[in-house]
Design goal:
Elements lengths: L12 E2 L5 E3 L3 H5 L2 E9 L2 E2 L19 E4 L8 E4 L8 E8 L15 E9 L13 E10 L20 E2 L5 E2 L9 E7 L9 E7 L9 E6 L1
Parallel strand pairs: 3-8
Antiparallel strand pairs: 1-2, 1-13, 3-4, 5-6, 5-7, 7-9, 8-9, 10-11, 10-12, 12-14, 13-14
Length: about 220
């Protein structure tokens, strides 16, 4: 099963005084992004992996569970029954396939995002062709354990209201935020939409598909 590691960065942001807020590492904001390639034959897609994997026909649904694929280490994922000890996350939502950075926004509480791709013919059987396949879905997953880096303020997952960021606009855990950190009061399109208490509206350069262009930062 071919696996593609996706890593992108957000564009520079600036504060009200023109001070550069630096680059945001989107890979740190959204956590792990990998591509799971499902094998397909002439009759259509079918999930790859051993018989213990749920037969999804190449498609995931909200409520499905999954975990690391023991046959596709270190970054592969596959479906497991939610009661299986190998299951480590549950799908909160199934979003469209994401191609452009920041175009997919998962719900709050998402700990990891998995991009599902489908390969046809011989490419589906070639595990050495990393990055192959046609993107079909994005799985917004939440850990089954008590570890939830995607929760507001926890320092991981996508940037959401209630998170904390450094002065360079990098997400940090609120519990260990420094004196120069800000709390995300809202994520809006225009800085005039920021709520009262905003002291650092950080404007981002345009990114197609991202639902916000300004981070409204206030006292952490």
């Amino acid at each position: 099963m071919a696996v593609e590691q996706v890593s992108t960065t957000r564009p520079p942001a600036s504060g009200p005084g023109g001070r550069a807020a630096g680059r945001i590492a989107l890979a740190a904001v959204i956590g792990l992004c990998v591509a799971l390639t499902a094998a397909c034959d002439a009759k259509g897609p079918s999930s790859s992996g051993s018989s213990s994997s749920k037969d999804k026909g190449g498609s995931w649904q909200a409520g499905d569970c999954g975990g690391p694929d023991p046959d596709d280490k270190p970054d592969g994922y596959r479906a497991f029954d939610c009661g299986d000890s190998k299951a480590t996350f549950k799908a909160l939502e199934i979003a469209a396939a994401g191609i452009l950075p920041g175009s997919i926004q998962c719900p709050a509480g998402t700990d990891l995002m998995i991009r599902v791709s489908v390969s046809y013919g011989s490419a589906a059987k070639d595990k050495n062709k990393g990055g192959g396949g046609i993107p079909t879905q994005t799985v917004c997953g939440r850990n089954l354990s008590g570890d939830h880096p995607g929760d507001a303020g926890a320092g991981g997952g996508q940037l959401v209201k209630g998170d904390c960021i450094s002065s360079s606009a990098q997400e940090v855990a609120c519990a260990s935020a420094g004196a120069d950190a800000f709390k995300v009061l809202d994520l809006v399109k225009e800085k005039e939409q920021c709520p009262s208490g905003t002291t650092e509206p950080m404007e981002l350069t345009m990114s197609i598909g991202r639902p916000y262009d300004v981070i409204c930062g206030g006292a952490a």
